[in-house]
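Is fe (ii) ion placement plausible here? Inputs below.
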Amino acid sequence: MQTEAARYAAEIDQNGYAVLERYIAPEVLQQGRSFIEQQVVAHAGEYFAIHGIEALGGTIIAALALSSPFKEMMRDLYRIQAGRDPAPTEQIFPVIRCLQGRTGLKQSHFYHFDATVVTALLPLHIPTEGKHCGDLILFPNLRGIRFNALRNVIEKAVLHNTLSQKLVAFAVRRGWLKPIRLKLVPGNLYLFSGYRSLHANDVCDPKLLRATALFHFGNPHHDSLLARLLLGANKRKAKLDHNGLRPTGPQPIPEATESALRDGGDLPVIAHGADIDDPQLAGLAHALERQV
Ligand SMILES: [Fe+2]
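Reply from A.M.:
I modeled the complex. Tokens:
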């Protein structure tokens, strides 16, 4: 008999996404919305994002990221899509994004590939009036899963740079490209392969609130130092380690890292959660990776 994860994986391969309708109960959705509403006040009606299990502690988002059935489903999806087991220490990385106000406008049509294979999106607040409701836009399964970190970095640099993002955004707005557009429904869970699919959100009316929880899982380059250095800007910005947790080890020595990279020597051991203080590396990392 086909498992649930196998069915969702087949839908993702065939249609680009899978939807689990009414994935959370209305009262649980309400709890998530209450948290968002408190944060909206704290952020004065402008765009914000909250990254990681610790920053979201005590919320339904953290509870879901830690729940065994949800983790098992994400792990199974990774196994099926990647054809191998995920790293044993890997955790689900949750993120909340709230588009609102003038700053929220800048967050639309930012086309990218995720660093992780499996992406689950749980809408909490979605505008229902007007043209601009922040639909999810997907070009599904455009690329394969790369286990070679260098190849992944090069491929992302080519497919996923500022110029290509602007060109795709322009072509979508003009109607020259026809991606999948999903009208999101709060409480449903949307599954897709963020690693393989170019995706972004459509414009959201600045007077309205669009709040979503994202769950990322399954980094094929989990153990790659190169990928740690060049990718994962959100975790770095939030000062989190590779598993999305607060680092407990010693802090990095950026000069040594830079010198090792320049000289082609052995890289020093870098603490999880290392910040890249070198502006060139940080700029490259920013250009290569931004999760939505
Ligand atoms: Fe994304």
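Short version: The chain has eleven helices and nine strands.
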